[in-house]
Design a protein that fits this description.
Layout: H1 10-21, E1 43-48, H2 59-68, E2 71-76, H3 85-93, E3 98-109, E4 112-119, H4 131-157, H5 165-169, H6 176-185, H7 192-201, E5 210-211, H8 212-221, E6 225-228, H9 242-251, E7 256-261, H10 266-278, E8 282-286, E9 301-302, H11 307-312, E10 356-357, E11 363-364, H12 376-398
Helix pairs in contact: 2-3, 4-6, 4-8, 6-7, 7-12
Length: about 400
Amino acid sequence: MQPGPQPATTSETATETATEMEPKAETPTPEPSLHTPLAPTDKVDLHLHTLASDGAWTPAALVDHLAAEGFRVAAVCDHDSQRSVAETTRRAAKRGIRVIPAVEVTTRWRDRQWHLLVYGIDPRDAGDSGRAFRSVLADLDARLMELAEDARARIEASGRPLPSLEEVAAGRPLWPYHVLCTAIREGHARNLKTAAELVTELGGGFSADEPLARVVEAAHEAGGLCVVAHPGRSDSVGEMTEADLDAMLAEVPIDGLEAHYRSYTDEQTALYRRLAAERGLLVSCGSDSHAPRHPVDPRPWRASWCAELLGRLGVTVEPVAAGEAVWESGMDLLAEPPKSEPVVDADAAPVAEAVVTGPDGVPTEVDAASGQLEPIGEQLMEAEAERAAETVSAGSGARP
């Protein structure tokens, strides 16, 4: 005869009772897979900078911010460098965030600089198809380091020491903006504009670029996509007009426009989305964030607004619901308000110019249209445009 079930001992009963009373651990919500399709409203930002160029985001801090804010896809687009892409990609993958390898290349077309966002070229890929593009970045890097050493020598030879230069560079390859920022820090210039003017007056330079056609051809050979950055920025360089775009396309096969940008109004976004749609171009969305709140934090653009570009980069975005617009005025709650002409009071007393500092404490400029701090790279682009205009003007005046 089989023995019946035995009564539980006191210790067993106590253990079971205690176990029942303990709160059950919640099952953690799994991180989204890197390859899970994006919902139309998922957050993406395809234009971010780090300390590899003129930003102050470290890869770790940037990824922490993106994860905390629920971003699904981001692109690291440092000026003329991909030094932060690999580390940012590794860190982001552990948090369920996909990083698109990218770079913002300084190019030249029709006697002015244009910033070009090149997406989809992994710096870890040493294949033959990427050789020409790697050469483009290597040439820019070498030229920038040459200009930096030259600017350093000229400033110091003029009796203006730069003892904190190595601290400012912080182990990074020495580029001109490190020298300019140090000149400001040491009291030799008030801001980046005057620092750039100082170097120019001393016979040096601070800017390097490559022909747009060369960059696009090399990027396409490597499988990259080329998007004109911030075509609607209001600065001394000037906005890209419809005529500019058509002339550029007639000469160079660019792939798209950054139709969503931190300083755009809905009217500007509508313009560049229309220009892109009519010409079969891709649309990108970018904040151009360089550091916390500088000029802005990464922006939560909707994945649907740049779905075709993301698709070309291997990221699937689910379609918007039937009958819903992909984008329309009013959807972007962070868009700049419509621009209006400032009212000038002729009798008002002059206001002293404010000194605003950027992420590293360097005095920086404020965009008059948006009131946002201007990143170093954009300020130098404007300074280069002004220098070029002055050179042309001087040359014109010298003609009989």
